[in-house]
Amino acid sequence: MSQVAAPTTLDIFRQWYEDSFTDFKLVREWKDVNAWHALGYFPVYFPVELAEAFDTLPVALYGAEGRINLDIAIAHTQSFVCTICKSVFQLGAEKRLDAFDILVFSNICDVARNLSGIVKRNLPDKTIVYLHYPIHNDTELAVSYLVDEYRRLVNILEETTGIKYDEERLREAIRLHNEKRRLIKILIDLRREKPWLVPFTEYYIVTKAASIMPVDKYNKLLERYIGEVVKRDVRPADRLRILVKGNFCEQPPLMFMKTIEDAGAYIIEDESLIGQYWIGEVSIEGDPLLELAKAYVSNDVPLTVRYHPSLDKQEFIKREIKEKNAEGVLFLSPKFCEPSLYDYIIYKKALDEIHFPYLHLEYEETTSSFEHLRTMVETFVESIMFD
Ligand code: SF4
Is pLDDT above 70 for 383? Predict the structure, then answer.
């Protein structure tokens, strides 16, 4: 009798990754087996620790990557709305978000802000939370304001789960998610140093699994995966080291990113899943709600959807390309995404000043033809390599 091979570490990540678009079957199973709740949140950043502290699985809703027809969403939204908003709405309208007891949206942009209202109106039985992050993050009131917002969410979590807020549980959740972010950073650093060891597609599957998997299970698996990856014997190829910016919310299809690497580039870093690690290490000393708020407000790494006038993004990108040893920058903007386009203008100006090569392209999560992209990237790569 032939034996079925045990799933590899990557296979397990892939199962959760596949579940994260339209099915959420593993989320339902996790809830049933562990008597947990589940919370779905719209990107980019969400303090996942808050959900975790109430035995609630936090899951990022990054859209459906073209896997469903968007007919209902198209009938409910304007044509100039980005595709992730349409696909998240469509998921809700098709009852594919039933696994979630709470859905959270925030003020990352006008479109996401309105999405919260449309979802609320069309899914009247669902608990919809609208989290309003501070706008002026360089004012003194920003932190206390955000603590109040987090308290409001805590009250909703208490009501939904019947669990009382416990600081110690929140600290433990922060500790676990700090560990997750530390491990993801190790993987990112490793790819930046030796991108030939982990193709972008594999990195993406592994990191996206962080947005849906129970954190404890994820951490153990990621530690094992990193141990396996460093032992790989792969020879580097002659490819251009490219830094990708702008894809922080709506996700380009995986094939889109693969086409970029196949066209002669190594994507040494990008922003696709930045919400999974951007907040960095949150202190577990003191009041954990306050520490979460402080970590958001004072983080000195720019996040496009957080307005922080005292951060100089132009200096940041000049430093970034130097430190990361990038040879070119690829700006990827989701169609109709104003935040991504605003940042492009800011960054482009800085790169023009130092005559650094860049290319700007648009995409949708439903993009399915990649020939044009391949030609554009190949030309870009060759123009730098043979300059
Ligand atoms: S893709 Fe851009 S426009 Fe759409 S919700 Fe995200 S930030 Fe807003």
Answer: yes
